[in-house]
Write a structure and sequence with these properties.
The chain has four helices and four strands; from the N terminus they run βαβαββαα. The chain is α+β, with helices and mostly antiparallel strands. The chain starts with 11 loop residues before the first strand and ends in an 18-residue tail after the last helix.
């Protein structure tokens, strides 16, 4: 689903399942590869995350997808992941080539990983707490 407008127009925000170890790892992966700090983050479970989901027309109880809000547009599932890769330092933008694979096929793999993420990667009792040096990256 790549639809709608978000209130975070002009900004790039990644919403993640804050207790998912895989999702927390994604944030830890993105931060050093986005040295200019253009990408901001919020947990899907946070008040800000729920506010952004509502503004984007998405369900607030859906925790099984990464959500990318970019220039007023909403991207979920594999589309979000590929667009995020496109914003990172070289060589990661090359991964965007996989956008040529039809979205339903890409999302089959995405949904398998999403469905099994807690079993394969674990989960925390609480959302990721950013260190002081990266706190400004979190909404």
């Amino acid at each position: 689903m790549e639809n709608g407008k978000s209130r975070e127009a002009g900004h790039t925000v990644v919403l993640i399942d804050g207790v998912c170890n895989l999702c927390q790892g994604l944030v830890r992966f993105i931060i050093p590869r986005d040295p200019k700090g253009r990408i901001k983050f919020a947990s899907l479970q946070s008040d800000k995350g729920r506010e952004l989901l509502l503004a984007a027309g998405l369900e607030t109880d859906r925790l099984d997808t990464v959500v990318l809000l970019e220039n007023g547009r909403v991207y979920i599932e594999s589309s979000a992941v590929l667009r995020i890769a496109g914003k990172l330092r070289f060589p990661w933008p090359a991964a965007y080539v996989f956008v040529i694979v039809p979205r339903p096929l890409r999302n089959v793999l995405y949904k398998v990983v999403a469905r099994n993420r807690y079993r394969w990667f674990g989960r925390d009792e609480a959302c990721l707490l950013p260190s002081p040096d990266i706190k400004s990256r979190f909404l």
